[in-house]
Design goal:
The chain is of the alpha/beta class. The protein contains twelve helices and 13 strands. Helix 1 (15-25) packs antiparallel against helix 7, helix 2 runs parallel beside helix 7 and helix 8 (244-262) packs parallel to helix 12. The longest helix has 19 residues, at 244-262. The structure holds pyridoxal-5'-phosphate. Pyridoxal-5'-phosphate binds at residues 56-58, 82-83, 85, 128, 154, 156-157, 178, 180, 191. Pyridoxal-5'-phosphate is lined by residues 56-58, 82-83, 85, 128, 154, 156-157, 178, 180, 191.
Length: 371
């Protein structure tokens, strides 16, 4: 039986044409014209003034933390249920990650637990949108205003999504995205920072380009990274962005079909299709096994793999990461919801190239496994 990968991107628009243009003109480095084009079109799409394209989403977070002046001794509040990139950016800058448990239904940071974690050392909240629904930005913005905190918004999973009709990626002092092939728009590898602040934009540009100085190029006042995006990657990005509306519609259709197929399985918890602030965009279609199911997500993934169907476990909370615990972080911290999600949750094939026939087969196999 043909295998169904957990993700497969759609690259059948203008990708080839624009890539050929790069080769024909010889513009392949970050100096090429697609980079500016991608940055400005992308920024406009999420209602921001400036876009700074980089070579991956993790690097965008590294730049965001340093650009905002967060460093030694500063505390940054973030969800425990997220990707390591979020905590890594904070720790590498010498700052301290302070984690908040997940909401059991939306899987986003439980915003009602943030205020109790704010101390005089808190400098920022890192808001991360998880899997399909945005985190509740109203409460994060309220707390940021009340305590004078910066907001970094990681919208990697939420391109094309809105929170109360406003684009995700338009909320942070700096907001970041990734263009890894499982994201709504891909450049192969890539990322971007967006902001409305011209000074922050300039700082991000400098940090992505080794902090070369405009007047004395090889005399450096600060350490940056080489995280530039190439013209080849940006060419893909421009082609992909042309189809974002179609891609979002495909994701929502996938979510609707899976939900129909799986709705009568009483052993599992499915993603919410709507809340009062957003309609699920199903970056991935996540499933959580109820506690009465006598096996865990790993066992279901193994059974799916035996039927040639790809899946992935949910995030493993930051508060349980060996690398961070070895640094002495999160001593005595307990996040029971994220701990459970890590063991009971997994996601099924969710890529843009997924067909309705494949969705049907995944549903059928999953019913077999769970019956
Ligand atoms: C994918 C992702 C990233 C990392 O992006 P890369 O481009 O793979 O480095 C960061 N944050 C979130 C929430 C993501 O989903």
């Amino acid at each position: 039986m043909n295998s169904i990968p957990v993700n497969e991107p759609l690259l059948d628009g203008n990708e080839q044409k624009y890539l050929a243009e790069c080769i024909e003109t010889g513009w392949i480095s970050s100096e090429g014209p697609f980079v500016n084009r991608f940055e400005s079109q992308f920024a406009a799409r999420v209602d921001r003034k400036y876009g700074i394209a980089v070579s991956n989403g993790s690097g965008a977070l590294d730049i965001a933390i340093v650009a905002l002046g967060i460093g030694r001794g500063d505390e940054v509040i973030l969800p425990t249920f997220t990707i390591i990139s979020c905590a890594a950016a904070i720790v590498r800058a010498g700052a301290i990650p302070v984690v908040v448990d997940a909401d059991p239904v939306t899987w986003n940071m439980d915003v009602s637990q943030i205020e109790a974690k704010i101390t005089p050392r808190t400098k920022a909240i890192m808001a991360v949108h998880i899997y399909g629904l945005p985190v509740e930005m109203d409460e994060i913005s309220r707390l940021a205003d009340k305590y004078g905190l910066l907001v970094i918004e990681d919208a990697a999973e939420m391109l094309g999504q809105t929170y109360k009709s406003r684009p995700c990626g338009s909320f942070g002092d700096l907001s970041t995205f990734s263009f890894y092939p499982n994201k709504h728009v891909t450049t192969g590898e890539g990322g971007i920072l967006v902001t409305d602040d011209p000074h922050l934009a300039e700082r991000c540009r400098s940090l992505r380009n080794l902090c070369f100085e405009p007047h004395q190029r090889f005399v450096h006042q600060e350490l940056g990274w080489n995280l530039r995006m190439s013209n080849l990657h940006a060419a893909l990005g421009v082609a992909q962005l042309e189809r974002l509306d179609e891609f979002v519609a495909r994701k929502r259709n996938m979510g609707r079909l899976y939900t129909q197929l799986l709705a009568d399985l009483t052993q599992i918890e499915l993603p919410l299709s709507t809340t009062d602030y957003a309609q699920n965009i199903y970056w991935v279609y996540g499933i959580v096994l109820k506690d009465e199911v006598p096996f865990d997500a790993k066992a279901v993934s193994a059974k799916l793999a035996a039927a040639n169907i790809g899946s992935r476990p949910f995030f493993w909370g930051m508060h349980e990461q060996p690398v961070l615990l070895k640094m002495g972080l999160f001593e005595g911290v307990s996040c029971p919801v994220a701990t459970r999600l890590a063991r009971r949750g997994f996601y099924i094939p969710s890529g843009l190239a997924l067909t309705e026939a494949q969705i049907d087969r995944v549903g059928t196999v999953l019913k077999e496994i769970l019956k």
